[in-house]
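Re: the request from the purification team.
They wanted to know what the chain is likely to look like in 3D before they choose a buffer screen. I agreed to run a prediction and write the result into the notebook, where they can find it.
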Amino acid sequence: MFTGIVEELGSLLAFQRSSSGFTLLIKARKVTGDLQTGDSLAVNGVCLTVTSREGSERVAADVMPETIRRTNLEDLKPGDTVNLERALMPSGRMGGHFVTGHIDGTGSLLYRREEGNAVVMGFSAPPGVSRYLVEKGSVAIDGISLTVSAFRGDSFEVSLVPHTLSQTNLGQKKNGDKVNLEGDLIGKYVEKYILGMEKEAPETGEAAKEGISIQWLQEKGFW
């Protein structure tokens, strides 16, 4: 589990392709200090497992084909800057929101504009992501916990303060660049229960579908 608060900007040293997948070699100073083989590391918001260490500042992580299909990692080139965050420790501060590192889909930067001391960025969002977006709700963009400031169905906006721009790679993005998107985990569970959950009927032992609808809410006095 992650918070979406980027700890460090790292550098991609190598992107190696093999018959079974890919391996990323990343250089960083802070997050690599206590990482061990088997630990989780979010790279541009993608939860990866550290497979080896090379000295004190380099770690390698394998990337399976499913991850390549669902993220922008294949677009990375040696020398690119990546957002890094170690898994949350129970004693840490929950500064962002619950981020799993399991990407729902990718979007693209549509535009950016300055607004006072902030920069507003607009992104496209596929249906698998937009269904979990609400104005003033949370979204993770390349592993960065951000607040949705406007939502238009297939696109949304976020507003970034100077600190976020300087401590993450969003400030380097150009129109058309692809980003990893992860919707709010809580929204996914709410959706599952509202659309209906399967429950075993005691008299038959078979799965019976029980859902929550607007009609059900009205009958129970909630609407």
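For the purification team: The chain has three domains: 8-86, 105-183, 188-219.
Please add any questions underneath this entry.
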